[in-house]
Amino acid sequence: MHKHRQRHIKTHLNIEKPAAKGQHLLHHEPVIHDMIGMAGVTTADTVLDLGAGRGAITFPLAKKAGRVLAIENDAAFAAALRQKAVPGSNVSVIERDIREAYLPKEPFHVVANIPFFMTTFILEKLLDPPGSAFQGAVLIVQHGAAKGFTARQIRSPRLLKWRMWFDFELVKVVPRRHFSPPPQVDAAVLRIRRRKTPWLQTQHHHAFGGLAEYALNDPALPVCEALAGIFTPVQIR
Prior knowledge:
By secondary structure, the chain is an alpha/beta fold. The chain has two domains: about 25-200, Rossmann fold (3-Layer(aba) Sandwich), CATH 3.40.50.150; about 200-235, no CATH class. It contains nine helices and nine strands. The strands form two sheets. Strands 4-3-2-5-6-9-7 form a seven-stranded mixed beta sheet. The radius of gyration is 19 Å and the shape is globular.
């Protein structure tokens, strides 16, 4: 085994850095309309709006979806959402931190302008494990984060694992002027879709994750060298 190889493997997933610890509210209606169209939801679908804010996405989304769960931690925003969500509507307001929210057990989608500093956590919550009820998402994230998630060269073991079950697409850049307050960087629309035919079976989820962490412990190494400590040259071929 190479000397630089270590048994303790750290996960590399620092794809984005926090722009600000707060929500940048999206106020550009054409982008919101495009996001809902990209999601392709119908009246049979349950959709989550994570970090719903004032409902800029929530209520247009409710016109297309069967059920919308608007999750918002800010008490004032949550109260405003409840006032807009008339009794008997298909919008349910959940006043809770996204990190503590429960995900539906039935199939669901996500359309949201998520807090930038929670991007990695939210994706972990949605995509791990791949056998969850999550079907797909259209998200606003930092432009740099979207480029990292969709890059051809993968340096993150967890991202490599996610790619086995989900397709990531950077759809369009969203200028910072379309937000209030404007973030320090431009944003982007990131679309995540569950693969119709996964590249790996769900039962191999944990085993592949461990292999990915080992192989990408030093992302600069060729795969044949990275795996030399656990496979023979014949096995690698």
